[in-house]
Amino acid sequence: MNINDNVSMFYNAKPQIFEKAKSMRKNMTSAELLLWEKLKGKKVLGLRFRPQHPIDIFIADFYCHPIKLVIEVDGGIHKSKDQKEYDLGRTAELNYLKIEVIRFTNEEVEKDMRQVIETIKQKCLLRQSEIQPSPL
User: What CATH number does domain 3-131 carry, 3.30.70.1030, 3.40.960.10, 3.30.750.80, 3.30.70.380?
Assistant: First the structure.
């Protein structure tokens, strides 16, 4: 991987963000681990997702660079007013980088994985068509 790939895929994330991401990969929540089992190894449409991926000052739960898609799995803390505001700002920052964010709750991942994966597949197909328009 050359330096340009690093800049584009990590959006100039600093070394401390990489360290934090590494630690978070070792301590994923049970819902994140369940979803990771379904995403790893290019199981969804042959796309590579990366867990706990640094993007600028953020760490995405899961990121697919070719289609610029972040998947977030939200635990109970995300229900608080302050956290909701932070999440909105974070999503806006990622959208500014042309990265789309989709969110699922821990409960959705734990109780309805089939629907979560179907939603992810549909979003991936949409992002592929947006990023790689079909020839006329």
Answer: 3.40.960.10
